[in-house]
Amino acid sequence: MLFGFAERGERDIFRLLITVSGIGPGIARTMLSSIEPALIIRALANGDVATIQRIKGIGAKTAQRAILDLRDKVLKLNADDYILSGHSNTNRDEALSALEVLGFNKKLAERVVEKIVKEQPEATVETIIKLALKNL
Fold first, then answer.
1. Which end of the chain is more exposed for a tag (fewer CB within 10 A), N or C?
2. pTM for the whole thing?
3. What pLDDT, in 10s, does the model give residues 22-34?
4. More confident residue, 40 or 89
């Protein structure tokens, strides 16, 4: 299979993730599209099972295994190097698209969604939409 990435950092993290038993390419891609790479690195380094477990397809055992297998490897990485400069947040984009389909003004929706993403960078698409609907 062929996989493409917006940034080299995404590819590096993807390669690390697929080395964990129970995490295949599909789940690794889901992880990268659900949470920013820097947050994945921080969660793995800090042993934050809850953050990893929030990702669809990741249970408690898989999250613990990922932390156990990758903690030493990600501690060598600097999470700030994996913040995607100029790369848009996929959850933000999907939420904006949904709000536009619902008929909301694009500029107004963008302002509201940006505020939500700044306050809650790990928010899911559903959470962003719910909060945006309350503010629109």
1. N
2. 0.57
3. 999 999 999 988 8
4. 40
For 47, residues 6+ apart whose C-beta sits below 8 A from its C-beta are: 67, 71
> Cα(65)–Cα(17) distance, rounded to whole angstroms?
11
Which residue carries 């809850």 as its tokens?
Answer: 50
CATH H-level superfamily of 90-135: Ubiquitin-associated (UBA) domain (1.10.8.10)
CATH top-level class for 8-82?
mainly alpha
Q: Give the pair of three-digit tokens for residue 51.
A: 């953050």
- List the one residue out of 107, 99, 104, 87 whose CA is nearest residue 125: 99
CATH 1.10.8.10 range(s) for the chain read 90-135
Averaged confidence pLDDT in the chain = 85
Q: Per residue in 81-110, pLDDT tens?
A: 555 443 446 788 888 889 988 999 888 998
Q: Which regions of the chain carry the CATH code 1.10.150.20? A: 8-82
